[in-house]
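User: Please predict the structure of the protein below. I'd like the answer in C-alpha cell form so I can feed it into my own downstream comparison script.

Assistant: Understood. Taking the following sequence of 193 residues as input:
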Amino acid sequence: MIVRRVLSAGLAAVLTVVSTGACGGQAAERPAGKDAAPAAATPSAALGASAPPGEPLDGPPLAVTDPWVRSTESGMTAAFGTLVNNTDVDMTVVSGSSPVSRKVELHEVADSGGKPVMRPKKGGFVIPARGTHQLQPGGDHIMLMGVKKEVRPGAQIDFTLTLQGGETLEFTAVGKEFAGGQEDYRPDAQVTP
C-alpha cells in the first residue's frame, strides 16, 4: 500500500493520511504487480482552502497518484506520478527530499538547439486549483542525484515534497525498470523558444 501524508505547518498540527541515469522520453507505464494500484485516499482538511459550507472536498488537499521511481544501481534517477490538488487555490512544490538520495531537485525537460536537456525547474511545480500536474519521463520530474543505495524494481522509496508556505507532502513511490530517452543534464541550458 502506498501512503501519502500532508502535514500543514500553519494548521494546529493536523496530520492527515492521504494518499532517472537519465530521464525518459516515452509515456510512463504503471508499475506491474500487487503494488501497482494507488492507495485509496482519505478525505481531509484543506491546506488554507476549503469547500463551500456543507460540501466536502473531492479528496485530500494534495496527493500523488501512481508514483514510481526508475530503478538504478547508483548515480541519478527520477520519480514520476501525478500531483493532484483538491483545493480551491494553486499549490506550488518548491523542493523535495528522499533518504535514498544526497540531493533532490525539481526538474523539467526543455529543448536546447534541437536536443532535450533537463534542468532545475525555476519556481517549482505549480498544481492549479482543482487540477493536476503530471510528472513524467521527458517532462517535469523529481530528480534524485547522488543515489546512496540501489533502487530495485519493487522497492518502496519514501519522498517528502515541500510546498510554498512550508507544508509538506510525504509519499512512497515504487521502483520499476524503465528504458527511456537520454536527455543531458545541463542546469544552465539555454532553451529554444
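That's the full C-alpha cell string. Residues 1-56, 189-193 have pLDDT under 50 and may be disordered.
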